[in-house]
């Protein structure tokens, strides 16, 4: 099938998409946007989190066809040119990035949280990020990063 | 020294002891860092692996005809297509690249498919017809040691027996406590799945881009299987999404190369999460029998232990894991009489090998559970009994090795005990702070609190006489009017932040700000594995040694150019400085088009093999120590545990990057928490029952409590900068501390991890 989708503000088209492909697969393998990650491909780890019409979703659980005509914003679409989004900068500064495989999903999830709740409590941060697994950091520095980003925005 | 504070400031801000940001951090937060599963090549194919559904079976036939006929399929390969030796392995080459006549574990690779779409490859794979004669699986380690059951390998089912004998063997004591303990099979659960891209080359060789922990040992195994000379198999490290030991053994490496060479096209392979559970080794499950004898004051007289480690179908690193569990089997305590026997065995369970803590984790659950039992038997506080037996510098280990640098077990424990405890639950109800969380399973009724302590020990670097070295090349030259250094190694950055550390070392030693870390590949000598908490020590040591050679050559050159005694000169902040006259010149002017380039192969001091009868020998290079205190709330009605606090004190010798040290302690502690209360690959008859993140749970941000951490820096005079490996110790003591806290809360014996709800409710 042919898929038309707006990604990071740009209209994109993909041809010969197999109906069983996920939005994650199309982003990574057909549109040259591998930033969203493939850690579990079953909606458990959150590493593939993207905005779909401004709502964060696990793109591995979205069939490619469901994205037809809709707007997707991925981790690659958060920075403005060379200027990182404050959430991205805070992850770097706080040491919240080790292997970094969870980072794109966590950055999008934290970005969404701070859009909804500009000054979240620790409990609110934990609840908002509970769907994103990280195996390296023990989450302490991820919490630091979100607090730092909240202060910076 | 009279260098200006400004230039000193520049160097120190980015040198060792500071916490500069990671050089790959920006790319990682932008989603632009290329992990091994992100790779793409024009005209590439996708590889898939057919795996055995049976833990133990004879293969009666493989028919690939139907799979080959699927449109879009380019190759279907079996063991007959392996041109070299169809065996690989880290310590013993006992594992087939593709199974021949027998499969020994569920998930063992049998055939490979390359196709133009991953789904095509998967569908074709399902059309391969394999005939099986299913055999009874061998699953019991103790039976293997007793010589029972069919031999899975020509030498029988014992991979290694490690005896340790120290002091009196028939000694008695006034107080004796015994226990039998079990540790479940833990998974590394790195988030970046096994993956890579193999590209056939015009010279008949292949270039492999892969996520791994040790490029050169991969290369050795690949060339043997492909029957190619090493120069025709070139490896480059692709972005690694975590490792924790799970990438020490081969996964897609030989398979992707075989498909690429066979089809003449680039081949990408990526496991999904389920396949990843079958595609790498796990932490050895253990059964341990301990007997501790002490005097009435709680001072240890002897420890006897039998430790059985189930290595699964193939050897992997089982022999070394058994060596660690045995030599570290009594823990960080001074024990005059020791009788330990540790066995690593074969079975038809999933293969087990390296995971963070490597044998020390299993033993620690045994000996720390015993120390709590001893405390109770002697009427002592759990910390007090540990203090009375704490080892220290000068202690003789069960191997006879004298510990010759700091072993601050007493200080770790006293500092830990002095940390403030979290406040008792009171007043306002917040479900999120209770066991069960927002599932609203309790408002505090049936919830009890407990506190537990544990301390652990780990050997750092490779042991038992292994020739452990790392190779580093450092180049200094002027680039664009600035002095710039380049570092080349084959050391795998797996997330731990080695790339940052190497930059810091260069800044400190050469006084230049701009440091480029070249991609890691096999065009330079081996760096050894990113394992055993060793890379900062080993590749850090190699880079430092190469930098010192560069500095010596540079200073000699500067002395000639500037007409000074070279013994007076040094470099700092991008300047050449004299001890007496201060800044003499800009480094870039002294370089004046010259480049200084040095390559060094660097070793730690040698270790010895263990005596095979007595287990005596100076087997380890360095020991690392951490201690944890856990506070838990337990809902006794539902068996739910909330870890309220998990505090840690660790000695790191020298914190080269304090932020990264904390990150290692926090992350390692979280993996220990996982083993304590949730993580286990559950097998039945060799079959994995939970190969997914739905059923194999790892800690989320809701499961990890805030941590108080104290880092000690007691320099090891034998190590570069006095550093002590950081990565593994925090994984070791975290688990027993949490279980001790659950025991304190509930009064239950709890002799198995992970502790599951039914262990707490008795249902």
TrEMBL record, chain A:
Q: Which CDD domains match?
A: fer2 (cd00207)
Could you list this entry's UniProt keywords, alphabetically sorted. 2Fe-2S, Iron, Iron-sulfur, Metal-binding, Oxidoreductase
Q: Which organism is it from?
A: Prauserella endophytica
Residues annotated as signal peptide: none
> Could you tell me which InterPro entries the record lists for this protein?
2Fe-2S-bd, 2Fe-2S-bd_dom_sf, 2Fe-2S_ferredoxin-like_sf, 2Fe-2S_ferredoxin-type, 2Fe2S_fd_BS, Beta-grasp_dom_sf, Diverse_Oxidoreductases
Q: What name goes with this protein? A: (2Fe-2S)-binding protein
Q: Which residues form the 2Fe-2S ferredoxin-type domain?
A: 1-78
Q: Short name of one Pfam family for this protein?
A: Fer2_2
Q: Report the superkingdom from the record.
A: Bacteria
| Taxonomic lineage | Bacteria, Bacillati, Actinomycetota, Actinomycetes, Pseudonocardiales
From TrEMBL, chain B:
- Which SMART domains has this protein been placed in? Ald_Xan_dh_C
- InterPro entries from the UniProt entry: Ald_Oxase/Xan_DH_a/b, Ald_Oxase/Xan_DH_a/b_sf, Ald_Oxase/xanthine_DH-like, AldOxase/xan_DH_MoCoBD1, AldOxase/xan_DH_MoCoBD2, AldOxase/xan_DH_Mopterin-bd_sf, Xanthine_dehydrogenase_dsu
- What EC number(s) are associated with this protein in UniProt? 1.17.1.4
Instruction: Look at the named UniProt entry and state the broad enzyme category this protein falls under.
Output: oxidoreductase
Cite the record's Polar residues compositional bias ranges.
1-11
Task: Please indicate if the UniProt record lists Transit peptide as a keyword.
Answer: no
What GO molecular function annotation could you give as one example from this UniProt entry?
Answer: xanthine dehydrogenase activity
Domain of life where this protein originates: Bacteria
The Aldehyde oxidase/xanthine dehydrogenase a/b hammerhead domain extends over 30-136
Q: Which keywords has UniProt assigned to this entry? A: Oxidoreductase
State the residue spans of region: Disordered.
1-23
Is Hydrolase found in the keyword set?
no
Q: Which NCBIfam families match?
A: pucD
**What name does the UniProt record give this protein?**
Xanthine dehydrogenase subunit D
Q: Which organism is it from?
A: Prauserella endophytica
